[in-house]
Amino acid sequence: MDIKKLVAEMTLEEKAAMCAGSDFWHTKGVERLGVPSVMVTDGPCGLRKQAGESDHLGLNASVTAVSYPTGSCIASSFDRELIQRSGEILGEECQAEDVAVLLGPAVNIKRSPLCGRNFEYFSEDPYAAGEMAAAYIKGVQSKQVGTSLKHFAANSQEHRRMTSDSVVDERTLRELYLPAFEKAVKEAKPWTVMCSYNKLNGTYASENHRLLTEILREDWGYDGMVVSDWGAVNDRVKGVAAGMDLEMPGPGKENATKITEAVLSGTLSEEDLNKAVERVLKVVAQYIENRQPNTAFQYERDHEMARQMAAESMVLLKNEAGILPLSKEKKVAFLGEFAKHPRFQGGGSSHVTCYKITGAVEAAKDLNIVYAPGYSIESQEPQEELLAEAVKAAKEADCAVLFIGITDEMESEGFDRKNLKIPFGQQRLIEEVVKVQKNTIAVIHCGAPVEMPWLNDVKAVLYAYLGGEAVGSAVVDLLYGEKNPSGKLAETFPLRLEDNPSYLYYFGEGDLTEYREGIFVGYRYYDKKDMEVLFPFGYGLSYTEFAYSSLRLDRDSLKDTDSLHVSVKVENIGNRAGKEIVQLYVQDNESSVIRPVKELKGFEKVELAPGEEKEVSFTLDKRSFAYYNTEISDWDVETGDFTIMIGKSSRDIALSAVVRVESTRQYKRVFTINSTFGDIMADPKGQEIVSKMLEKMNLDDIGGEAISKDAMMAMMGYMPLRGALMMGGDKIRPEMIEGLLDQLNA
């Protein structure tokens, strides 16, 4: 497809029309020029292709597909290869259904556990989210199907999501809310990026030139298409000028007319319009020219893949006295309606019409289990008859497994959660069962954290997240030891909602949402405050044990333009095979700017047989040590010592070593009469020059007996240079200050 030739042959009206879809799911074709229409569809954790004709809301039934674990679940695998493989299978399914672009992955940062869409997002940590997004995109696009990296940017709440204004300072934006997008764009090159509903610092994302052109295209070198979230367009003409290429859904006839009129009146450059059309056509060409029409949906294979993904991702949070894995000879009570009818996927645009759903009761049908529903999913209140039946079953069994969690009505796209509590009926079930059964295990189906005031009353907790259509099989695999748990949390679980750093400001006031907590989100906040948490970022248990040794850095000092190679040995010291997620954190030991205690800069998942030892390696670059310096609008490293930490979680650091990093940045600092003595003397040249002036001032004479020389020097650290005129009396004249500034700034 000769894209530039096609654009040259299009009429102005045809070009304007190409900037919107033809309906809810399809791009617009140009029949006379042979330009076809292609289909885009949800979703990141399973194909949601609408069956039959598109309706105006995209709500008609979707084709049968496989539901995979949601983003929050698979993120806990910390397994790039697994995530990439899942992407490959999704790409094959898209080819089987003639879908050109899959609308995912979603990489927004989990600012608050209340966000209704957190089940779809990967992590509170930008490094982790970016690595996982890149792996997913590579997988899908290896099958010649595009992805849509979303929602760009700072879309961290569902509350008033279509009108809210995310007010975020530049450093926070660059360090937390943009890096996952940046990593995915630079490394995996998604075919499309989806702009979010919200405003960012006063301008809607769909018409934000700084976001879509200056940052995305000019800073990061992105050359793909930008598509709107469905219904996110405010001013279409401004959107074209800002770099937003395709409005969805279509047909957008009124906006096409506005685009045409704007070009004719000169308020919109036809060059900008041509660029938008070219980028839309590029996506169409990429798919059409690499179509794989003989690809077939392999339902059984893909269902088993969903099972494997879930088992690799679920997190064992507690295992007191090694109660798990369960013996197949024991009589076990499976309690809770989720045991038979599991909650396995999120609500909203990621809802898949499933091939088949396997609950834990069905998966354990050949084992010695009894089942009682215990509560009704339809009600949050206790159902006394169901409760009594469950308590009786628990009492007569060797142990009880409680299947609990929250429902679609409590957690979904489109609205935020009200709290972190499980329904009261389920709370009562826990309270009554633990009274009669000391060997009680909790399995939790939820897309995000819940509070656990009952944690000390149960012996074990397996966090299943929303594990896809094969969730029941995966849970049984883990409970009975067919699989060894290897997931770790990609988010912090607070003790209570009020502990969350965004708690005071989360919903905002009207449409104003201020990110006042700044860079302190998730573990960055809890570590800085030295706060107790329910479970820390990176935490998860296994049925075996791992030991770390021989941390080695390939150098003890480096320039920030160099790379640092880090290696560590990990050994399985238990009696069964397992997988460990080795985490690398970096700490700036002394900084002139406010920084987190530590930040994740590497992770690797390694599989080990009993007694086996492997070496795990990492490479750190400048960004591993840098913060975003708003004074120079770039990433910056301060010369100093950094601690490299190897951890089992963010709160369990096994080994550490110190490295010296030297900044190579050269910039001229200009001192003024309002520069403080402390700032000037922090510079070696400044210290030499100012020391001579301080000798003339004779601080002993100034302070006398009332204040010591050391105290006087401490006070002067915060005094501006002009203060010397007052303190120095006749010894310091204005022309002396001017001469000193000339020397400093020479």
From TrEMBL:
Superkingdom, natural source: Bacteria
Classification via InterPro entries: Cellulose_deg_GH3 (IPR050288), Fn3-like (IPR026891), GH (IPR017853), Glyco_hydro_3_AS (IPR019800), Glyco_hydro_3_C (IPR002772), Glyco_hydro_3_C_sf (IPR036881), Glyco_hydro_3_N (IPR001764), Glyco_hydro_3_N_sf (IPR036962)
Keyword annotations of the record: Carbohydrate metabolism, Glycosidase, Hydrolase
Any GO molecular function: hydrolase activity
Pfam family, one: Glyco_hydro_3
Similarity field: Belongs to the glycosyl hydrolase 3 family.
Protein name (record): Glycoside hydrolase family 3 C-terminal domain-containing protein
Native organism: Neglectibacter timonensis
